[in-house]
Design goal:
The complex is a heterodimer of chains A (589) and B (240).
Chain A (H helix, E strand, L loop, with lengths): L2 E2 L3 E6 L3 H12 L4 E4 L7 H4 L8 H6 L12 E4 L7 E2 L33 H9 L2 H4 L12 H15 L7 E2 L2 E2 L23 H12 L5 E2 L9 E2 L5 E2 L21 H4 L1 H4 L5 E5 L1 E8 L6 E8 L4 E11 L2 H11 L23 E8 L15 E4 L18 E6 L20 H10 L3 E8 L8 E9 L5 E6 L4 H20 L4 E5 L42 E3 L14 H19 L10
Parallel strand pairs in A: 1-14, 2-3, 2-14, 3-11, 4-20, 14-22
Antiparallel strand pairs in A: 4-5, 6-7, 8-16, 9-10, 12-13, 13-14, 15-18, 15-21, 16-17, 17-18, 19-20
Helix pairs in contact in A: 1-13, 6-13, 7-12
Chain B lengths: L1 H13 L8 E4 L25 H14 L14 H10 L29 H19 L10 H13 L10 H17 L11 H6 L36
Helix pairs in contact in B: 3-6, 4-6, 5-6
Bound molecules: flavin-adenine dinucleotide and iron/sulfur cluster (SF4).
């Protein structure tokens, strides 16, 4: 029997970055807030202390902190002519679970999108003509929110995290040493940029010799101790090299645990319930309002939690699935182009160049999640695309996240994957090689989308999410062009040899790429082109808000979380200043 | 859906597939002293998963994947078979992080692992199927008795998927798992039973479980002189 609980002002579905930020914002307004998280409680001392955090087998390869796909996964295919099959093992992306979720085992690469990234359609059409965006069946569109509107919220997230970096554009003034292409920032980074190890330093020198504009990667791996506005204290990063895919044992990586939870957990009007999986958002009979959510806990008991407001903060894939399972909005149909929920799913287009020296010891194990020297000369529309046949771009980073030996032994072109030759190549190159990462945008396409699988169900009997996705010609052309730019820098470093790992063929679920899934619950300026308005409020069901990268109409050439967090603060500001006074649509349809 | 969802979750918990009991937190950061989630290392020297025939195959195969020579240890010297044995006997072997329910179909390479077998079941089905192929191809010989060049030929045939195996085993799927698990045993922390004496780490120059490199960040090009350290300390300190 379903137990009905005491009503609350707001229920948060999922408790990672967006749940933690929204929880803090709403609790500060005095609202009663309950967060429901399907995974366990997690903290530094118990779950990833320095005595055992640096365990590559357990965390990376045995997925100790990641979603357990044995009871719930999604199905995948490259196009509608194929039968979608379950993702039986994590690979291409590493979904989070538990308190803090991806915010625990992320790299801490903190980016802002470019002002022109928010105007993907109008900006590119204006500069390159109408066909620039309609070629290849691209379905890109403007966001309905601008960089200037988000800037104060990017700033808030930087202050929350204590982001280490060097500004390149302070209120319109270009600053030496920073990224000259970034949008204007209202403030310098809260803490100085990290010191760079040998490989990123060599990368920066080579890039500068080619006339590029290298700068230190902005990072949530802190260069010095920091106390944030919520009173949370972060320590100095020790470059342990077990950062991406691992929790930080040092309190020096910005995460919900290190930045928000000490403050939020102490609030009497906040309650967190772990091991509670939300099954569905419940609606009124006319489907114009949510009444709350139904969830089941790990003891098998089912509950109905009534709430005035439902915040979906369950990561893009689960947010979209919950919308579909709850019958909110119209599912997208790629054959007609009708419907919005699930439309414009996109990803990240990654490639790399490995660089091998004989005469230089690089010590790759001295690393951090966002330790890199970067060039942004070929990202977004920072360069002239005339005649190139694609839109979008990438940042190119001489990056050393660590030297974890199962994952990160680079061997030269033509080396077999096993045998004496492999072993000798490993012994020769481990200390003397590193990888340049090409982190590319991914435009949205008519054929790439999310819906419910007709065949496969999870342990709870609910249809799985089905992902239909492939890289388009636009992405392949972009990636090839950018990989060549990375190779130029690699060659300018005068190494013994380099190896190009181009982005070829169809998207595969097997090798890790990024956990930067986007779209499916996209934002826009009217219900005919989007699921949510610029405040992440669902069109037609105004007391449901959908957080996260699902709101991106297409993905830019940067990591998403800076923008995800800024959108969350932007939504919270509108809820606090307008919605709570007059609960209803914040934008008229 | 109501009742069945609850029953399914309770069953999954019972199988140790999911985490702990539901908990409610309010008004304070929860703090449990001494509750560290320590790594699940192994002890002893006994094999608990492989039969003797399976063990003979595994020892021969992994020593071709990473052969011994003066540059560094081979996979057998490094304890990889013992590592594999304990991994397959434990949660990894049982497929704790694999979705294994049907319906099954081969799928495209891009769709990844599509076997109905857990890792332990895959090894158990693959090894006799490979031995059957080897016996039929090499006059009844076992894989472990073949010349190294013939062993390599068989491994290459598995790797490319060119060899068809009985028992519902996809040869390329098995090879990919064997190679990955072999590297894991060779290069993971010794508490899991492989990487004996951290000799593989020594060979490549990885200092292991150090957590603080601050003083080395800007000492560009210098070799970090630390000998490798594991969770249980340096080779000299470990019980033998
Ligand atoms: C290895 C890795 C490295 C990354 N590095 C970077 C980086 O350097 N920079 C960057 O910008 N981004 C990075 N990311 C991405 C970043 O982690 C995500 O963008 C961010 O965590 C998303 O926040 P979220 O709140 O939307 O989702 P999450 O943080 O994933 O939180 C969602 C939560 O919802 C819970 N949940 C889901 N469904 C339900 C349900 N039905 N009921 C109850 N709870 C539910 C989940 O268990 C989870 O705890 C990385 C991700 C990974 C995995
Ligand atoms: S690299 Fe720095 S921030 Fe990352 S886990 Fe290690 S100590 Fe923490």
């Amino acid at each position: 029997m379903t137990v009905t609980l005491k009503p609350v002002d707001a229920v948060l579905v999922g408790f990672g970055w967006t749940g933690a930020i929204m929880g803090q914002q709403l609790c500060d307004e005095g609202l009663s807030v309950v967060a429901l998280e399907r995974g366990p409680w997690r903290d530094t001392a118990a779950d990833f202390a320095t005595g055992f955090a640096q365990d590559e087998l357990r965390y990376m390869w045995r997925h100790h902190l990641f979603q357990n796909v044995s009871y719930d996964t999604l199905t995948i295919r490259n196009n509608t002519s194929q039968q979608a099959l379950p993702m039986r093992h994590l690979g291409s992306f590493l979904l989070g679970t538990g308190v803090g979720s991806g915010g625990v085992h992320w790299n801490g690469q903190i980016w802002r999108f470019l002002p022109s990234d928010f105007l993907t359609k109008s900006h590119n059409q204006q500069r390159y003509g109408r066909n620039a965006v309609t070629d290849y069946d691209l379905t890109v569109q403007d966001w309905g929110v601008t960089y200037d509107e988000l800037e104060p919220h990017y700033d808030t997230f930087d202050k929350l995290c204590g982001t280490s970096g060097k500004a390149g554009n302070l209120r319109g003034q270009i600053q030496p040493g920073g990224n000259p292409f970034e949008g204007p920032r209202s403030n310098e980074y809260p803490t100085p940029a990290m010191a760079q190890t040998y490989a990123p330093t060599l990368f920066g020198q080579a890039a500068a010799s080619l006339g590029r504009h290298p700068f230190p990667h902005p990072t949530g791996n802190l260069s010095q101790p920091y106390v944030n506005p919520l009173g949370a204290q972060l320590g100095e990063c020790t470059y342990c090299g077990f950062c991406e895919k691992f929790g930080c044992g040092n309190y020096s990586k910005a995460s919900p645990q290190t930045t928000v939870l000490p403050y939020l957990m102490a609030k009497p009007n906040f309650t967190l319930k772990t091991e509670c999986e939300v099954l569905k958002v419940e609606l009124t009979a006319d489907r114009k309002r949510a009444t709350g959510v139904t969830y089941v806990d790990s003891a098998g008991q089912e509950y109905f939690q009534p709430a005035e407001m439902v915040i979906l903060s369950a990561y893009i894939l689960q947010n979209v699935r919950l919308l579909l399972l709850s019958g909110i909005g119209e599912p997208y149909d790629p054959s007609t182009g009708k419907g919005q929920v699930g439309r414009n799913y996109a990803y990240q287009t990654m490639s790399s160049v490995n660089v091998f020296f004989d005469d230089k010891i690089l010590n790759p194990f001295i690393g951090a999640g966002a330790l890199a020297t970067v060039i942004d000369d070929f990202n977004g529309d920072n360069f002239d695309h005339s005649g190139l046949g694609f839109i979008g771009g990438a940042y190119v980073a001489g990056m050393v996240t660590g030297g974890r030996p199962i994952e990160m032994i680079y061997t030269p072109q033509g080396t077999p994957a096993w045998g004496l030759e492999w072993k000798h190549a490993a012994a020769r190159n481990y200390l003397r090689s590193f990888s340049i990462s090409v982190h590319g945008s991914c435009m949205s396409h008519r054929g790439n989308y999310l819906d419910l699988d007709p065949t496969y169900r999870d342990t709870f009997g609910r249809p799985m999410l089905r992902m239909t996705f492939d890289f388009t010609d636009n992405e392949h052309k972009m990636s090839d062009y950018l990989t060549d730019r990375a190779a130029e820098v690699a060659k300018a470093m005068n190494p013994r040899e380099i190896k190009l790992n181009r982005r070829t063929g169809s998207w595969s679920v097997v090798p890790y790429q990024t956990t930067h899934n986007t779209g499916g619950a996209i934002m826009g300026d009217n219900p005919g082109n989007s699921v949510v308005n610029k405040y992440l409020q669902v069109w037609g069901v105004p007391n449901v808000f959908s957080m996260g990268a699902g709101a991106f109409p297409q993905n830019a050439g940067y990591n998403p979380t800076g923008t995800v967090a800024a959108l969350t603060y932007h939504a919270a500001a509108a809820i606090k200043s307008q919605y709570l006074k007059a609960p209803g649509a914040l934008v008229q349809a | 859906m109501a009742g069945t969802a609850g029953a399914a979750v309770a069953a999954a918990r019972h199988d140790g597939m999911l985490g702990g009991p539901p908990q409610t937190f309010t008004g304070a950061v929860p703090w449990q002293e001494g509750a560290a989630d320590a790594p699940p290392g192994v002890s002893g020297t006994d094999f608990i998963f492989f039969t003797s025939a399976e063990r003979a195959f595994i020892e021969a195969a992994v020593d071709r994947l990473i052969p011994p020579d003066p540059v560094g240890p081979g996979a057998v010297e490094a304890g990889v078979p013992f590592f594999l044995d304990h991994q397959l006997a434990g949660q990894f072997g049982q497929g704790q992080h694999y979705f294994l329910a049907g319906p099954w179909s081969k799928g495209t390479p891009q769709q990844g692992y599509q076997s109905r077998f857990s890792p332990a079941q895959l090894y158990r089905a693959a090894i006799p199927a490979i031995e059957k192929y080897v016996a039929a191809t090499f006059n009844g010989a076992a894989f472990s008795k073949l010349a190294a060049a013939d062993q390599d030929k068989v491994l290459k045939g598995l790797e490319s998927g060119a060899i068809n195996l009985d028992g519902g085993v996809d040869s390329a799927t098995f090879f990919a798992m064997l190679l990955q698990n072999t590297r894991e045993g060779y290069l993971s922390d010794p508490i899991y039973g492989g990487n004996k004496d951290m000799a593989a780490w020594k060979m490549i120059g990885f200092p292991g479980a150090h957590y603080d490199y601050k003083e080395w960040v800007t000492r560009h090009g210098e070799r970090v002189p630390y000998p490798p350290v594991g969770f249980k300390g340096r080779p000299g300190w470990t019980e033998r």
